[in-house]
Automatic annotation (TrEMBL):
It comes from Agrococcus jejuensis. This is Sugar or nucleoside kinase, ribokinase family. Pfam families: PfkB (PF00294). It comes from the Bacteria. InterPro entries: PfkB_dom (IPR011611), Ribokinase-like (IPR029056).
Length: 297
């Protein structure tokens, strides 16, 4: 099986304050720098799940070799373009137990154009994964064209809604138009409520099921609701030592999508997804360690 993800690749600056943040003075904190970006993270976790994965993205010109190497060492075929005019995207993530506050500079990510992904690559994979971040910066119509091209070539499309705040700013109708016809849809509770206008997992899940035949509605540390062509089932999460929730959603999504496209029924695919998410929250950073890829291989 082969997969393609494209879009955001980020330098994460993870901040773990030692107590309450005090304004206008110092607060002791542990600060960790890690590679990130939802699309790149998803590619890394797909590779960890044993999928041949290609990632297409854009960083500042001086960072091409570094980010290519970081993805290559976890088994991803990284096709990264250097932007001569814009720096690599950066996110400062303030981590407070299972909650995160993110300050985002998309940088070169804003110039990843879905129209530049050729049909030869799109038709050579089994699934192309789209994140909601790829819709930003005026690319929503191009993403819609990519979804149509993928389907015309016989390639499945999976998508995650991404940041509820960003999609709200973009416009829900714009996002839904771009992602029409997705085969697999993953959203968390806040994202699901935002794009459906519903409240409560049951109502949100039912509305999401009108958008895609296979849906995973993630409920944080509780678990996930899986809807497979109208049939609904809850899959509980797995207890794990919470170190850093960054990347847990990408780990679940990558594993869930990989197994569904690979022929596993969605409920069992979700079970494998929550297992991978439990691994993700137990370490700092949003991607698997290179050893995880070696074990999968």
């Amino acid at each position: 099986m082969r997969a393609l993800t494209f879009g955001d690749v980020i330098d994460d600056v993870l901040v773990f304050p030692d107590g309450r943040i005090r304004p206008d003075t110092d607060t002791d904190a542990q600060i960790v720098r890690r590679p990130g970006g939802s699309a790149a993270n998803t590619a890394a976790w797909m590779a960890a799940a044993g999928v041949q994965t290609t990632f297409v993205g854009r960083v500042g010109a001086f960072d091409v070799a570094r980010h290519t190497a970081l993805l290559s060492e976890v088994g991803v075929d990284a096709r990264i373009v250097g932007d001569p005019d814009h720096e690599t995207g950066t996110i400062v993530v303030l981590v407070d137990r299972d909650e995160r506050t993110m300050l985002t500079d998309r940088g070169a990510n804003a110039f990843v154009d879905p129209d530049e992904i050729g049909d030869a690559l799109l038709g050579a994979v089994d699934v192309v994964h789209v994140t909601g971040y790829s819709l930003l910066s005026g690319h929503a119509e191009a993403v819609g064209r990519l979804v149509d091209r993928a389907h015309a070539l016989g390639t499945k499309v999976s998508c995650t809604i991404g940041s509820a705040g960003s999609i709200s700013d973009l416009g829900v109708d714009v996002a839904l138009d771009a992602l029409h016809g997705a085969d697999i849809l993953v959203a968390n509770l806040d994202e699901g409520a935002m794009i459906t206008g519903k409240q409560g997992a049951a109502a949100i899940g039912a509305a999401l099921a009108d958008l895609a035949p296979v849906v995973a509605l993630t409920l944080g540390h509780t678990g996930v609701v899986v809807i497979d062509r109208g049939a609904r089932q809850f899959v509980p999460s797995i207890p794990a030592q919470l170190v850093d929730p960054t990347g847990a959603g990408d780990a679940f999504t990558a594993t869930f999508v990989a197994h569904v496209v690979g022929g596993v029924d969605p409920v069992n695919a979700a079970r494998r997804g929550v297992e991978m998410a439990a691994i993700a929250v137990s370490v700092r950073g949003a991607r698997p360690a290179p050893a995880a890829h070696a074990a999968a291989a």
